[in-house]
Amino acid sequence: MMLRRLIACTTLAARLLSAPAGLCAAPLSGTLFVVDPGHGTRTVDGRPLNLGAVGRHGIAESLVTLAVGEDLARLLRQAGAHVVLTRSYTKPWRTGRLVRLDNRARAALANRLHATAFVALHADASRNRKAHGTSVFWLRSNSVRLAAAMRAHLRALDLGESQFRRRNLAVTSEARVPAVLIELGFISNPFQERLLATPAFQQRAALVLYAALADVYARS
Hints:
CATH architecture: 3-Layer(aba) Sandwich
Shape: globular
Helix content: 40-55%
Number of strands: 9
């Protein structure tokens, strides 16, 4: 059952990601999402500042979040949404001075743009290599509905759930628009690290995140 679901999800994601934008309906027209692929920040002089975790097999969190963010942005745009990426394939590095200020600046961008929602993407890490599962964090009451939708759709990844709770983080506290921080799995878990690195999983992750956003914000 799990294998069939993953194959079906991967096939659908591939079709959506390769479909010409002009052939897609626009259920999310009029929306604006800020998608924040976590980490990937250097100082002005090029020193690492906010690079994120690296798994045992050398997979970097910042590269996983960037790939999922790009896939998610494409799905959202095909549905008619306007999307702003805080990092992209054309600009994979952010420039910052302090980690906390860098994180707050990402959410502050969503505030300035009056975004429909802000979605921060991360991959968790723990000293316990057996730790596994996705997590959803939010803070303000205007984010509860989105957080619940994310939680429901992330179950399709079959990674288990680590945490689902209100949490005062730099991005969730700074954001005034609906905001969630998603942990896509544990990059410190060798099995989940390898999974997170695969384009097939990245596309599946983007698809379930898209489905959650569509559930909440698509025109009826």
